[in-house]
Structures are given as C-alpha cells and as structure tokens.
C-alpha cells in the first residue's frame, strides 16, 4: 500500500486528473454501449451484471478520488 501512495505522490497533478477523467469516460462509454432501444442496460445474466456494475462502481469512485486529489494538490501545494 505504501508503494501505491508513494507512486501517486510523485505523479504530476495533471496526470492524476487526466487518469481520473479517462476512467470516467471509459465507464461512460461502456454503459452507453450496453444500452438497448429502451434505454436500459442489458447483460447476459444476473451475476455478470452484478459483477460488472460493482467493478464499475469501484473504478468510478477511484476516478473521483484521483480527480479530487489532483485538484487539491494543484490548488494547495
């Protein structure tokens, strides 16, 4: 865990923000491509949908944290 934190501390602010935005765009593109004509997301079965949504939830929160952390470092350091 310390190696991840030290790696993120050495990373430039713009890279943190860019990676966060890239994650958000990637998730949005995947959701858009899964939508059917009625606007609902379609999965092969329940467990695939559950696992996919859970992983995307974690990645979305990670992206939010990266964006906020990059903006915080840009403004206050």
What would you say this structure looks like, in words?
By secondary structure, this protein is mainly α. Helix content is 81%, strand content 0%. It contains 3 helices and no strands. It has helices at 2-10, 13-34, 46-76. Helix 2 packs antiparallel against helix 3 (46-76). The protein is elongated, with a radius of gyration of 16 Å.
Characteristics of this structure?
single chain, 77 residues, mainly alpha, 3 helices, 81% helix
What is the string of helix and strand elements?
A: HHH
Shape by Cα distribution: elongated
Q: What's the helix count?
A: 3
Strand content: under 5%
Structural class: mainly alpha
Helix content: over 70%
Radius of gyration: 16 Å
Measure the end-to-end span. 23 Å
Mean of residue pLDDT values: 92
Uncertain stretches of 5 or more adjacent residues = none
Give the biggest beta sheet: none
């Amino acid at each position: 865990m310390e190696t991840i934190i030290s790696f993120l501390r050495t990373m430039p602010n713009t890279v943190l923000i860019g990676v966060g935005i890239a994650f958000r765009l990637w998730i949005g593109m995947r959701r858009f491509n899964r939508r059917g004509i009625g606007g609902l997301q379609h999965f092969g079965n329940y467990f695939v949908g559950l696992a996919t949504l859970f992983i995307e939830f974690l990645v979305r929160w990670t992206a939010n944290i990266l964006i906020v952390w990059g903006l915080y470092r840009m403004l206050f350091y």
